[in-house]
Structure of Glucokinase:
Amino acid sequence: MAKPFEDTVLNFPILVGDIGGTNARFAILTGPHAEPKEYPVVKTAEFATLDEAIQASILDKTSLRPVSAVLAVAGPVEGDEIRLTNCPWVVRPRTLFADLGFSELIVLNDFEAQALAVVALGADHLEQIGGEPSEGVASRVVLGPGTGLGVAGLIHACHTWIPVPGEGGHMDIGPRTERDYAVWPHLERIEGRVSGEQLLCGRGLVNLYRAVALTDNKPVALETPADMTGAALDKSDPVAVEAVDMFVTCLGRTAGDLALVFMSRGGVFLTGGIAQKIVPALKSGAFRAAFEDKAPHTHLLRTMPVYVITHPMAALVGLAAFARTPALFGVETQGRRWKA
């Protein structure tokens, strides 16, 4: 009897792509032992469709012609038209075959790719924030505040790493302290609720900043997440300082909740540009205190390590590892794999 997943072998060259709400990153693998050939980051807003972006940014700039593709997209993968949550692009596999010449396509969730990266990256691309050393094959969680809030788990069973994608970034998140209760009424909501993604992403940080300013009747002096993180780190704007502190604390609470769900003795991994930019704030103590504040399991959380993934193309590393040797990973491709 065939082993699960062993029929997933792909033909080279293989295009791997990590497609988020704001940016898309691509690389081509020419063979099982070759390093990925990476291409400049693509701004999704600059192209009307995914097909146009691949043609103009990749295929028009190389003589390599990939015959297979493994794409990770920021949204649930369902049916023959896959819509991204925070981007107007729609992935249509049959159109990609006709327009770009692919003969096979696998589409995964973007945080499946991030989960795959966790076991493909070396220690030189991980910045640890507290906890004990990671337990070798213990469960893991990946959490990424970016354009949205991505979440995935990673479990080990039957000698295989199995990513568990989901939409955990849309879980409810509520106030705990007196200050939270003062700020929360000023937060922008979606259909009456505050989810993790309303706080823990780029627009979530803007939401927090504006709510803090409104609570204290202070001017909203900054507009972009980058301005806010910069002003918080150099302490030039008190509202930004508090907003980033609240962001870090809420991220710690959410990371701790997910660590309990997956019993993540293998670690919790923070990924994405925001986490990389605010490492000093994450190391200040507030994140770790919120992460561990999970009575009656405080002692358990104290042992669990947290890492910031510092590799700028982590998802591509995970996709490349899967594309080379898919049988090593328990990625279910039924309903997510197309052939011309």
Observations:
- The chain has two domains: 6-110+314-339, 122-309.
- Residues 122-309 form a domain with the Hexokinase; domain 1 fold (CATH 3.40.367.20).
